[in-house]
Amino acid sequence: MSNKAAVQALQAKEKVMQDEIERFKKLQKELQKFTASRMQLDTQVNENKTVKEELDRLEEGAVLYKLVGPVLVKQELSEAKLTVEKRLTYITKESERYADMIKETQRTIEQGTEKLGRLQQDYQQALMKVSSAGR
Amino acid sequence: MASEKTTKSLKLSQLSLQQLDRFKAQLNEEVSILTSSMQSLKTVQLKLKESKESLDSVNDKSEGKPILVPLTSSMYVPGKLKDTSKVLVDVGTGFYIEKNVPGAQDYFQRRIDFITRNIEEVQKNLQEKHMIRENVVSMMQTKLQAQMQAMRVAK
C-alpha cells in the first residue's frame, strides 16, 4: 500500500469515527431530555396522587373549586374525581412510555460505546502504521 | 449489617482507581440532588407550617374584624371578615377544597407529617451516600499510596 493511499484510508477512518462521536453526543443529549421529561411527569403523578387522596377523603356534597385561568369555578366532587383519575392514567402512561424510550436510548448508547472503542482502536493502529511508514 | 459492610468494602478494593473516581463523581452528583430535594422539602414544610399557624387567627372572635385586602403588592383596600368558619385550601393541580377550620388544620398537619417523613427518608439516604463516599475516598488513597510505593520499588 502506498503511503498516499494509507493516508487516505486513515482520513476515511477518522471521518467514520467523527460521525460516530457526533451520533453518540446526540444520543446522550436525547437521553438527558427524556430523563428530564420523565422526572417532570413523575412529579405530576405524585401531585395528582396526593390530590386524589384528598378528594377520596371528602364526603359527598363537599364544596370544591377548580382554578380555570384566574377564576375559581365550582365543581362537583364526582366530576373532579373523574378529571384527576383520567389525568393520572394519562400521565402514568406517558411516564412509562418515557421509561421505555430511556431504556432504548441507553441500550443504543451502550452499543455505540463498544463500536466507538473498536473504531478508535482501528484508527490508532492505522495512524501508527502511517507514521512509522513516513519515517 | 456488618456482613453487608464487608462485602461492600471488598467490592471497592476490587475496583480500579479510574472506576473509583467515576463512582465518586456519581456519588457526588447523587448527594447534590438529594441535598437540593431536602432543601425544597424544607421550604414546603415551612410553608405548610405557616399556613397552619395562620389558621389560629381565624376563629369566631375575628368575625367582623376589619382587614386590609391586598389588591397588588403595594395597594390595599379595607374589608371585613364575613365568614370565619370556612376556608379554601389549595390541594394542588388547581383544585381548591372548602373546609372548616379544624378540617383545614387537619389537612395541613397531615401534609406536614408526610413531608417530615420524606425529609427523614432523604436524610437517611444522604447519610448513607456520605458514608459510601468516604469509603471510596479512603480506598482511593490506599490505592494511590500502593501505586506510589510500587513505583518507588520499581526504581
Automatic annotation (TrEMBL), chain A:
Annotated keywords: Chaperone, Coiled coil
Coiled-coil residue windows: 7-61
InterPro entries the record matches: PFD_beta-like (IPR002777), Prefoldin (IPR009053)
Pfam assignment, any one: Prefoldin_2
GO cellular component, one term: prefoldin complex
Domain of life, source organism: Eukaryota
Gene Ontology biological process terms, A to Z: chaperone-mediated protein complex assembly; protein folding
One MF term in the entry's GO annotations: protein-folding chaperone binding
UniProt family annotation: Belongs to the prefoldin subunit beta family.
Record-given protein name: Prefoldin subunit 6
UniProtKB/TrEMBL annotation, chain B:
GO molecular function annotation: unfolded protein binding
Keyword terms, alphabetized: Chaperone
GO biological process, one term: RNA polymerase I assembly
Keyword Chaperone: yes
GO (cellular component) term, any one: cytoplasm
Keyword Cytoplasm included in the entry's annotation: no
UniProt record similarity statement: Belongs to the prefoldin subunit alpha family.
NCBIfam families listed in its UniProt record: prefoldin subunit alpha
Protein name: Prefoldin subunit 5
